[in-house]
Amino acid sequence: MAILISFGLQKGGVGKTTTTAITAFILSKTKRVLAVDLDGQGNLTRMLTGKRKSSFEKTIYDVLKAVNTDNCITVVTDTLHVIAANDDASKIPGLVASSKEKQRLHLLKLSLESIQNEYDYILIDLPPALAEQTLLGLTASDYTVTMLQTDPFAFHALDDYLETCQLVKEAYNPKLKLAGILSVLLNSRASLDQSILRKVRDDYEELVFSSVVKRQARIKEFTITGISDRTKTDRKVLTEYTHFVEELIERVEKG
User: Fold this and answer.
1) Which of 143, 142, 122, 116 is nearest to 27 (CA)?
2) pLDDT band at 84 (very low <50, low <70, confident <90, very high)
3) Which residue intervals define the domain AAA in the entry (predicted)?
4) 67 with 110: CB under 8 angstroms?
5) How high is the pLDDT of residue 130?
6) CB atoms near residue 49 (< 10 Å)
7) Least confidently predicted of 16-20, 73-77, 187-191, 226-230
């Protein structure tokens, strides 16, 4: 039975999609992974498949509309599959509103139920805004990882996201747990970045992952070229993410 993990924060540009994609890539080396793109920008889709979002005829919208994944899964490798997203995601709020399901925000959870035994992990990339997609993703998740970019705006968004998670837990998904807070350092030498990181560790203690991801140029290139571990340089820049994935696995498999 798959463990479902969402990645989110109600702010864009914090490394959420990049982290979801790289986590899926690393996990797929030893596990069966399905990555679900809930963001109409389709960045996760592009990063993992190398294809433009407009090239996909079947996407997450079709999954939610049919309440199943038939013909909607793209095979990247034998152990890494993707449910793509494109501009059709803009129609998801209307789809949820018109759904005949008594528990409308369980649409994603219901859609994935029949394939959970086919994967070890299902990773869900949430959009940066608080919208139906975010609520659908959290309602379907066993765990959620929240990103903390060492930026004042991201820091303030952290409480908002955690409050949303708590509301979803109380109203729709009592099993939802916070896997942890992953810090992304914009500038490891900047005093403000270090100050924000210290503040978060003081406030949230063991909820903060020990792993810290630093912004690196090669990681940004992965968003264009796709993720690779073929060269020594690539493997080196993935090291911090590998440490995070190891820590994540330990937390979620421990329960």
Assistant:
1) 122
2) very high
3) 4-177
4) yes
5) 75
6) 22
7) 187-191
Tokens of 111: 């859609």
Tell me which H or E stretch contains 184: strand 177-185
Q: Is the C-alpha dihedral spanning 167, 172, 177, 182 positive or negative?
A: negative
- List helix spans (H) across 113-228: 132-140, 152-171, 191-204, 217-225
Q: Is-contact 182 189, C-beta < 8 A?
A: no
Question: With 90 as the cut, is the pLDDT of residue 241 above it?
Answer: yes
For the chain, where are the alpha helices, taking DSSP H only?
16-27, 43-49, 60-66, 92-98, 107-112, 132-140, 152-171, 191-204, 217-225, 232-237, 239-254
Burial of residue 15 (CB within 10 Å: 0-12, 13-18, 19+) is buried
Q: With both helix axes pointing from N to C terminus, report the angle between 191-204 and 152-171 in degrees, rounded to the nearest 10.
A: 20
What's the pTM? 0.94
